[in-house]
Amino acid sequence: MPTVALIAEYNPFHRGHAAQLKEIREKLGERCPLVLALSSGFCQRGSISLLSSRRRAEAAVKGGADLVLRLPLAFSLADGEVFARGGVRLLAGSGIVDLLAAGSEIPDKDSLKRCATYLSPETPELKEKIREGIRSGLSPHAARGRALRELTADEAAASCLDQANSRLCVEYLKQLKELPTGVSKPGFFMLWRNPAASPGNISAERIRELIETQGLRAGQEFFPKETLLDQLLSLMPVDSLSLLLSESRQGKLLCDRDWLPLSIFLLQRAGISEKLFPFRYMENRLADYLLKMLGEKEPQDIQIESLKSRNFSTARIRRALLSLVLDIRRDEAASLGQSPAFLQVLAYSRRGRNLLKRMKAQATLPLLGSFSDSRRSQDPALLWQTELERRAEALRQWLCQDSVNELLLAPEEIR
């Protein structure tokens, strides 16, 4: 029976995620082992996670996963290509994954594969067409799709770039294709996400919006209104919601409003774009743009969504501001963030014990018990990537006023 893996954020874990895990086992066998590469404390679109990595991993195991690995911050807080590269290489480095599963709005796996082939690597002609599209006012995704249509006349393949999950599938397929020689390459198992058949409006974004707007937040009243609780119950498994409520009672739920004032302070203190340019995602005049838009504003007057422009997406702006807060430098990311340098287990089930035993024997990446282990390493990439985790955990502790450093905890077996 194959060991199947997913790359996920689970911010937070909801009924749609539980249904996806159930679907995998319905198609591949009830005893099919499930491994997750789970985002660290900050997510791909530039958001802080509601819950810590440990609590999201616990929710995932209670929801059906067997072994949850940390996807390092260098890859979880990144654009789609880097996010996919980190997830794919982490799972390949575990040595135990046979299939990578992912959901796609496009039901045609062959079209996804052709799209990935066209983009791996991007030809000079394709790159120039994409730049032309961006200069004309298209978003990077739309420019990429138009360039593919013009150069290949393959509408089915180009349409794979029109939807978020399909785009991510294309990136996964690219990264599987580009795995270094000698690395065991997992196969690809596609799950069709049929929008017409989806059970209501279940999304992590909707849950976060409900929590932020209706009071279930750190420092606010713990007990939610009955209507909010009913809504959350319709969207989340009971175990996942129980974890969320427990963390809320302890003041440990976070949202983007919590870190934004610090990023604005650091931006305004820098004052000039030359001081901002070295940070990841601040290139291509984004530093100038942010100084112009935010240079003299009070944090409470700022809505990140209002900063979106033809050239800069909301996700790009958030990632850039968080890079400033966490001191993520572009040159370090380019040289030390090409591939995950370590494995760390966040949680596992009883069945996950066997996976953990196999991983210890077969992994090509070092397995860290806790982050104190990393200090003995001589690998610059491992040292840099674990240092980012420490900065992120310190920020989370500060925002929550929490004395527990989760990086020092051993992985938990969840029953």
What does this 3D model show about the protein?
It is built from 19 helices and 8 strands. The chain is an alpha/beta fold. α2 (53-62) links the parallel β2 and β3. α4 crosses α9 (164-177). The two termini are 23 Å apart. The model is unreliable at 218-223 (pLDDT under 50).
Features:
415 residues, alpha/beta, eight-stranded mixed sheet, 19 helices, 50% helix
Number of helical regions: 19
Q: Give a short account of the largest sheet.
A: 8 strands, mixed
Low-confidence segments, ≥5 residues, pLDDT <50?
A: 218-223
Secondary structure: helix percent: 40-55%
SSE-based structural type: alpha/beta
Count of DSSP strands: 8
Could you tell me how far the N terminus lies from the C terminus, measured between alpha carbons in angstroms? 23 Å
Shape: globular
Mean pLDDT: 90
| Alpha carbon gyration radius | 21 Å
Strand content: 5-15%
SSE string: EHEHEHHEHHHHHEHHHHHHHHEHEHE
